[in-house]
Structures are given as structure tokens and as C-alpha cells.
């Protein structure tokens, strides 16, 4: 018996039948004597639908109003689930982000949680109520509704679990756990029983959308055990926990890909102090995050500089750099959206040299050109042409011995 936070993603609440399935699961956990807080996403497709609707009004809709609109997706599901639980005879209540007091910064569309006051949730739990919380949303210090970025309900769940010091945060989704690669791309992907926060963080940051990256940051910081599992089966999923000796000792534990970035190149940039600052400061000021950067110096004292940004920010970043290029007398600026980033990750890399060479050889064997490379202690990423992304992931999955028997 304990305090369990359960989060149900879009496909798990896609229609009333599935919400009923969720209600049954919640009730079962509650009847086992646990206190239960449920975080819900919008029904599958609803957030996308609302974004499209807003775009019909304005191609770049007002950010405050867009958040007010998007938050309705989660509000709908939370109310429906609470209604259902009540009609099953249970004391249940839906709460929106502001009512839980999920306090965020002012960054509409990608707000960060700063503080959560769970007093109301606690007192409801003390009465044995089931608390249903709308995920993905919070409110800024002025009381405006904010949203936490795509996939943000994961972060709502883990952050609320951390604030409540819950015994476990269960993330219910449409796959049975975290796999060695996206199972919809690599049919031979295997489920990982236990994975460290650190590895999960790398995987999330390089494209395994099964958990939003910030949710893993919260889990790691506050030591929240996270159990990723399917809402459609009883199968045990993946435990995301602190690294321990019981974990599989493999060099590479997962392969991921990400098609969400675009690259921008400035050609023949003067090679002198202050230029990089001029190129990147205005992008940072626009709230655009830059991922990979590569700079090649030419003999002429000029350099080519290439970097990647999220596709969603591509047009804005390109427009900024066109101005910068004039300013610093760069020869040319161009962009490319047809790229993908493939990555291999694993804590075993720390003690095994040669992983990068194996990765490059594998891509070469498939005739895939590498445009950019970036590494961390436990990850290697290569930027390639988008059309080769699936092929690259499958080849790397096989090369590093991850294929299921
Ligand atoms: P939810 O709506 O439940 O939040 P998401 O669609 O956000 O679900 O995340 C689940 C999806 O993540 C899966 O359907 C799967 O295709 C994808 N995915 C990508 N990489 C992985 C991975 N390594 N392991 C499991 N799922 C992955
Ligand atoms: N509904 C939001 C989205 O589609 C948040 C979530 O599902 O986690 O991104
Ligand atoms: Mg998700």
C-alpha cells in the first residue's frame, strides 16, 4: 500500500471505452489500498487538432491564447475520467493545473515547472478520494494558463509524484515499456526491464519520445521510480531507476532517431573572435535552442558554420541568420530540413572504446554519409539524410547485438 501516481497518454484515453479501461485500472489500484493520483493527456489527436484549428485563425497564433486552447484537451479527459469514476461509486475529483498549483515560468508553449503546491491533493487523498489531474498544463505567476511542451503530461506526472513523494510513478502508454529502439521502426527491438535515469535521459533527449526529457530530469533529481508500461496489458514494463549492479552490462543499450531538427549553414564567415557570439546570441534571445554545431576553418581565414535547431523554429532561425549574415559579411546562408539524427547510447560506452568507429563503419557499409557528429560520455549521434534514418537505426541495432532472437 502506498501512494501511486499513474499517467495515461493520449492513446490510452483515445475514446470512452479506453477511458473506462483506465477507470477500471485506477479503481483496482485504489481498492488494493493505495492512494491514487491520475494524470491524463488529451485524447489521441486532440492536441494536434487544436493546433490546426488555431492555425486556421492565424499561422502564428498568439501564444497565450494557444495555451488556453490546448489546455482544453487535457481538461476534457480529466473531467470525463472523474465523471466515470464517480458514476462507478468512487469519490473522485478532477483538477486543472492551476488548481493543483503547478506553477511555471512565463514561457507559453514550453513552460518549465518551478513549484508545485500539492496541499489540496493531499487533503483530498486524506479523504480517500481519487484525484484526476489534467496533465501538460500549469499556470504562470500572473495566473495565466501555460503548457509544458509536447509530451508534457509525462513531466506533469513525474513532477507531481516528486512533490507528493509518491512511491512510484507509472507511465501508461501504447507500448509495453522502453525498448532498445522504437518498436514501430525496429520490429526486432527488445524491451528493457530496467534502465538508469542517465541512460533514459540520453534516450529521451535524442528522440525516444516514450518519455518527455524533462520528466526524466525530474525523476532523476527527486529519485522518483518510474514504471513505463502498457495500459492495454498486464505485462510488467520498464523500471527507470538509479544505476545499480543488477543492470545488464551492454556497451550500447539503445538506438534512437529524431527527425525533428533542421540545419542551418553560414558559409564563409570571418574567422575571428566574437563571430560565434553574433551568430548564436540572437537565436538564443528568440528562445530557440541549438543542438549540434560544427565549424570548419578554411585556409582563407574564413569558416563555414553549421548548426541544428528544432524544425518548428527553423523558419524563424533562418530569418535571424539571414540578417546576421549581412551583418558579419558571411557569403551565404542556407537551410536543410531533410535530415535525421541517429544515436547510440549506453553507460557501457564509458569503459569500451571503439563504439564510434563501429557506428561510422556500420553507416559506411550502408552507404550513408555522415554530415555532423556529436558525442557525450554515453552517447554518439550522427546527422544523416532523412531518407536513411530507418535503415540506419536498423543496421545499428543489429551491429550492436540488440536484435531480439
Ligand atoms: P503517449 O501518448 O502514451 O504519451 P507517446 O506516443 O508519447 O505515447 O510515446 C510512446 C511511443 O514512443 C511509442 O508508441 C513508440 O512508437 C515511441 N518510441 C520511440 N522510441 C521508443 C523506445 N525506445 N521505446 C519505446 N517506445 C518508443
Ligand atoms: N497532449 C499533449 C501532447 O499531445 C501532452 C501529452 O500528451 O503529453 O503533446
Ligand atoms: Mg507522450
Describe this structure in words.
It is a single chain. This protein has 405 residues and is of the alpha/beta class. The protein has a domain at 3-174: 3-Layer(aba) Sandwich (Carbamate kinase). The chain has 12 helices and 20 strands. The chain has helices spanning 16-31, 46-57, 63-87, 97-100, 119-126, 153-164, 197-205, 213-222, 275-285, 314-328, 355-365, 389-399; strands spanning 3-8, 35-40, 92-95, 102-104, 113-116, 130-134, 137-139, 145-147, 168-173, 194-196, 226-230, 238-241, 254-258, 261-270, 293-297, 302-310, 332-336, 339-345, 372-376, 379-385. Helix 2 runs antiparallel to helix 3, helix 6 packs parallel to helix 8 and helix 11 (355-365) crosses helix 12 (389-399). The longest helix is centred in the first third of the chain and has 25 residues, at 63-87. The chain is globular, with a radius of gyration of 23 Å. 43% of the residues are buried. The structure holds adenosine-5'-diphosphate, aspartic acid (ASP) and magnesium ion (MG). Magnesium ion binds at residues 9, 151, 154, 209. Adenosine-5'-diphosphate is lined by residues 9-12, 41, 151, 173-175, 178-179, 181-184, 208-210, 254.
Amino acid at each position: 500500500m502506498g501512494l501511486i501516481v499513474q499517467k495515461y497518454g493520449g492513446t490510452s484515453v483515445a475514446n470512452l471505452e479506453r477511458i473506462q479501461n483506465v477507470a477500471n485500472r485506477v479503481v483496482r489500484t485504489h481498492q488494493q489500498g493505495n492512494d491514487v493520483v491520475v494524470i491524463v493527456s488529451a485524447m489521441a489527436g486532440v492536441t494536434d487538432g487544436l493546433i490546426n484549428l488555431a492555425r486556421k485563425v492565424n499561422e502564428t497564433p498568439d501564444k497565450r491564447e494557444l495555451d488556453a486552447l490546448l489546455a482544453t484537451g487535457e481538461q476534457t479527459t480529466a473531467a470525463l475520467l472523474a465523471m466515470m469514476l464517480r458514476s462507478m461509486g468512487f469519490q473522485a475529483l478532477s483538477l486543472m493545473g492551476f488548481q493543483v498549483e503547478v506553477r511555471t515560468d512565463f514561457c507559453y508553449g514550453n513552460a518549465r515547472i518551478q513549484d508545485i503546491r500539492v496541499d489540496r491533493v493531499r487533503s483530498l487523498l486524506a479523504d480517500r478520494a481519487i484525484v484526476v489531474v489534467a496533465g501538460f498544463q500549469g499556470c504562470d505567476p500572473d495566473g495565466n494558463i501555460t503548457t509544458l511542451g509536447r509530451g508534457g503530461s509525462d513531466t506533469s506526472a513525474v513532477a507531481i509524484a516528486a512533490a507528493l513523494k509518491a512511491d512510484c510513478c507509472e507511465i501508461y502508454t501504447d507500448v509495453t515499456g522502453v525498448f532498445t529502439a522504437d518498436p514501430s521502426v525496429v520490429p526486432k527491438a527488445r524491451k528493457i526491464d530496467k534502465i538508469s535515469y542517465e541512460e533514459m535521459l540520453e534516450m529521451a533527449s535524442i528522440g525516444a519520445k516514450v518519455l518527455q526529457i524533462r520528466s526524466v530530469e525530474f525523476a532523476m533529481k527527486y529519485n522518483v521510480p518510474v514504471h513505463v508500461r502498457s495500459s492495454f496489458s498486464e505485462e510488467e514494463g520498464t523500471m527507470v531507476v538509479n544505476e545499480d549492479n543488477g543492470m545488464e552490462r551492454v556497451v550500447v543499450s539503445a538506438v534512437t532517431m529524431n527527425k525533428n531538427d533542421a540545419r542551418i549553414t553560414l558559409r564563409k564567415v570571418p574567422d575571428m573572435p566574437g563571430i560565434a557570439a553574433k551568430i548564436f546570441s540572437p537565436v538564443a534571445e528568440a528562445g530557440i535552442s541549438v543542438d549540434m554545431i560544427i565549424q570548419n576553418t578554411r585556409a582563407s581565414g574564413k569558416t563555414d558554420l553549421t548548426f541544428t535547431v528544432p524544425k518548428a523554429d527553423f523558419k524563424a532561425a533562418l530569418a535571424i541568420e539571414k540578417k546576421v549574415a549581412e551583418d558579419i559579411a558571411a557569403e551565404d546562408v542556407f537551410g536543410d530540413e531533410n535530415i535525421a539524427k541517429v544515436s547510440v547510447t549506453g553507460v557501457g560506452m564509458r569503459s569500451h572504446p571503439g563504439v564510434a568507429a563501429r557506428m561510422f563503419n556500420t553507416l559506411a557499409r550502408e552507404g550513408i554519409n555522415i554530415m555532423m557528429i556529436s558525442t557525450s560520455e554515453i552517447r554518439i549521434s550522427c546527422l544523416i539524410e532523412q531518407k536513411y534514418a530507418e535503415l540506419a537505426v536498423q543496421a545499428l541495432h543489429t551491429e550492436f547485438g540488440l536484435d531480439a532472437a
